[in-house]
Structure prediction request, 150 residues.
Amino acid sequence: GLSPKWTLDVSGNYNPWTFSKNKKWKHWLVQPEARYWFCNKMMGSFIGFHALGGSHNIGGMDLDFKFLGTDFSKLKDYRYEGWFIGAGVAYGYAWALSKHWNLEAELGVGYIYSKADKFNCAQCGDKLEDDKAHNYVGPTKAALNLVYVF
Prediction:
């Protein structure tokens, strides 16, 4: 808690794995969020303002779909290695389960700017493009959290 109606949430993700046939979906991500609670902190509705940043190394994945302007089918034949930053706003709700335990649900939207080098294939190292920029607007956070309150 930062004040009677403000809290700070910091989440992180790390995936270091390379799958069979050199398929990669490696990334790390840090996502701090300031939350304003409409009633009491850690109870009921809140609005969150989050930032995010990290890096990725993705390729060799057979995903044949497009989502909000991103063509995931390119991940089958190419590998992308780069970084990203962004920000967004979210709405959430917390239910008190007991004195120290809460259940939270949250959904957020925002903007992400990324730059990545494009490589010829998931296994190869031949670079095809340097620092290709990509802009994304859409979901930036979806969470269901079990929270311990001190």
